[in-house]
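As the work plan foresaw, the team has encoded backbone shapes as discrete tokens. One protein thus recorded appears below exactly as we store it.

:::
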Amino acid sequence: MHAEKMNKMCSENSEDVLTWNVFKSLSQIDSKIWLPNIFSKAFNAEFSYDSLVKIDLWKSIEPPKSISDFQKDEGNSEVDTIIESDKFVWFIEAKYKSDISMFFRKIDIFLILRYSEIVFFGGEL
């Protein structure tokens, strides 16, 4: 873990602390116990996958070629949490005591589209 991230984790309002506590704990439990419940609450649908998942925290992901070709100075994105199986990939951005409307500004919509492009157009996780 980077020193900068460790410093941020000292705050009681830290989204990184929330991310660490929730997803490191869940990674210790069989995903068949907790994943269907989270899926049904998030998507209002029944979870129909029967596969184990891998959880990565704060993974750095390179931009897809289609973005880096047009924006030469585009750097990597750090995704708070990635839950991945052989059937799906979820990118999760933790928000805690933040104005959620700030999350949905143009730049953040761009990040959502960028993450989608990484997954759907052959980007490497």
About this structure: The CA atoms of residues 47 and 53 lie 13 Å apart. Strands lie at 54-61, 77-84, 89-92. The two ends are 19 Å apart (CA to CA).
